[in-house]
Design a protein that fits this description.
- This protein is α/β, with parallel strands linked by helices.
- The chain folds into 2 domains: 95 residues, Orthogonal Bundle (Arc Repressor Mutant, subunit A), CATH 1.10.10.10; 206 residues, Rossmann fold, CATH 3.40.50.
- It is 46% helix and 17% strand.
- The protein has 15 helices and 10 strands.
- The strands form 2 sheets. Strands 6-5-4-7-8-10-9 form a 7-stranded mixed beta sheet, sandwiched between helices. Strands 1-3-2 form a 3-stranded antiparallel beta sheet.
- Strand 7, helix 13 and strand 8 form a beta-alpha-beta unit.
- The longest helix is centred in the first third of the chain and has 21 residues.
Length: 357
């Protein structure tokens, strides 16, 4: 039977009972649920939970090891199964829990792909309301004009670079970008690639393995370069990849490159960005290609959400931090003498601008 609505105000009364039509709070609930899941991951890492299973353990064995209630522990492990972090295997009279592939790869201490430090670093950024208010209220006394990563890099270059490695590998960024570069029709004729802010050198190392005649230069802060060289040696590419220390905004990059990469490194105003892009244009050979991959914002500076959150977190800590919009970055590239030959949007908020000389 079709419901009759009282046109004199019945719909409003029904909304008071059922909730507003067409608009729910489901998105807010989903966000809060994601936060609950994140804290369960933090708990598992603090307790080294994924190190305990070996080839497989029952909930009773895990609860006995940790001193927890068996029934509650089983409920916890079942949630990790629902999150894709554990697998559950049924055997006669017992249920066995095992780490899933994603846990074995990214959450175990022994894995070379572990991102435990990256995850713990993200949790360290979570703030109580009072702390957020204090940071929002604090005005810069003397805004910095140096590279935004300089403070952390100078303090702890090794841990800083490891975090960059963990993010680049786990996000799939290396495969996406190097696949894009290698698909360009002139890539296999390229002789030299310049990686600006390359720190660990993973992008250049991958390209050098794809193109056996390619040589690379990693240009980064002097404090980072010592760590960069250890990674280059680990990849067996110290004869083909050179590490150079310097400042993007002050020093020369040299000349004679056919490919230049810049991945999430230029976090400054359009005026500063354009100056760097002009230097890159000079460093490239005719028909050289620049790949600018960053967490750019849209024109309203409200999306992608990952980019908006990234900008908030960084600008709370670094006075001179600025995240350009796609249009601002593209305008700077065109003013520097480039033409746009491709725009690629990736998961996680990254956008890559392919600019050609």
């Amino acid at each position: 039977m079709k419901e009759k609505i009282d046109k004199t105000g019945g719909a409003g009364k029904l909304d008071r009972i059922m909730g507003p039509a067409g608009i729910t709070g489901e998105a807010l609930i989903i966000t809060l649920q994601a936060a609950e899941e994140a804290y369960l991951i933090q708990f598992a890492l603090e307790k080294d939970l994924f190190e305990l299973f070996g080839p497989g353990k029952s909930a009773a064995e895990i609860s006995g090891r940790l001193g927890y209630d068996s029934r509650k522990t089983r409920a916890l492990l079942d949630v990790y199964v629902s999150m894709g972090l554990l697998n559950k295997v049924y055997k006669p009279d017992v249920q066995i829990f095992k780490p899933s592939a994603i846990s074995r790869l990214y959450l175990k201490n022994s894995s070379p792909y572990s991102i435990r430090e990256l995850i713990k670093g993200r949790f360290s950024r979570l703030m109580q309301p009072a702390e957020l208010e204090e940071k929002l209220s604090r005005s810069p006394v003397r805004p910095s004009t140096g590279p935004s990563a300089a403070g952390q890099a100078r303090k702890d270059p090794g841990p800083f670079t490891r975090l960059m490695v963990q993010h680049a590998r786990s996000s799939g960024s290396i495969r996406r970008l190097t696949g894009l570069v290698a698909a360009h029709p002139r890539f296999y004729r390229a002789g030299r690639v310049l990686d600006l802010g390359g720190s660990h050198g993973l992008y250049t190392a991958a390209l050098c393995h794809i193109n056996n005649s390619l040589e690379g230069v990693i240009f980064d802060l002097p404090e980072i370069i010592g760590v960069t060289r250890t990674y280059i040696e680990e990849y067996g590419l110290k004869e083909r990849i050179k590490a150079v220390g310097g400042d993007f905004y002050q020093d020369s990059f040299g000349r004679g490159y056919q490919v230049v990469l810049a991945v999430n490194v230029f976090h400054r105003t359009p005026e500063m960005l354009q100056g760097v892009l002009q230097k890159i244009h000079t460093s490239l050979d005719p028909k050289g290609v620049l790949y600018l991959q960053h967490r750019y914002l849209n024109e309203k500076r409200t999306a992608p959400k990952e980019s908006a959150l990234f900008y908030l977190n960084r600008t709370l800590e670094v006075d001179a931090f600025y995240l350009p919009t796609v249009r601002e970055a593209l305008h700077c590239g065109i003013e520097a003498g480039f033409r746009l030959s491709g725009l690629f949007r990736f998961r996680g908020g990254d956008t890559c601008l392919r600019l050609e000389k």
